Amino acid sequence: MLSLKECFDFCGLTGDEVHAIAEHEHLSELSAAVRGQSLLQTERGIGEIRRFIREDIESAKSRGRHHTAQEFAKVLAHFKETHHS
């Protein structure tokens, strides 16, 4: 049986990136890893993941969760560095 970390490694995303997709799409982390892996296959999909993370940042800010917004901003910066489109 695969561990959750092995699933993240397989999908090409970090745990934090998967968490951002899970939060945005209201999915389990395993389902978010599968969705993220699929989205990584196209430039449009990569753009969708960026949008998800940006919207997670805005949602956290609007709820006064500034630390969470900062963490998502770090996730977005890393994602942009590692997934070019």
Kindly describe this structure.
Helices cover 79% and strands 0% of the residues. It is mainly α and 85 residues long. It has one domain. The chain is globular and about 40 Å long. The model has no long low-confidence stretch (mean pLDDT 92).
What's the topology here?
Layout: H1 4-11, H2 15-25, H3 29-39, H4 43-62, H5 66-82
Q: Report the β-strand fraction as a percent range.
A: under 5%
Compute the number of helices.
5
How far apart are the first and last residues' alpha carbons, in Å?
33 Å
The figure for the number of domains is 1
Instruction: Give a quick account of the main beta sheet: strands, pairing sense, barrel closure.
Output: none
Structural class: mainly alpha
Low-confidence stretches: none
What's the order of the H and E elements?
HHHHH
Overall 3D form: globular
Count of individual beta strands: 0
Radius of gyration over C-alpha positions, nearest whole angstrom: 12 Å
- What is the helix fraction of residues, given as a range? over 70%
Q: What's the overall average pLDDT, rounded? A: 92
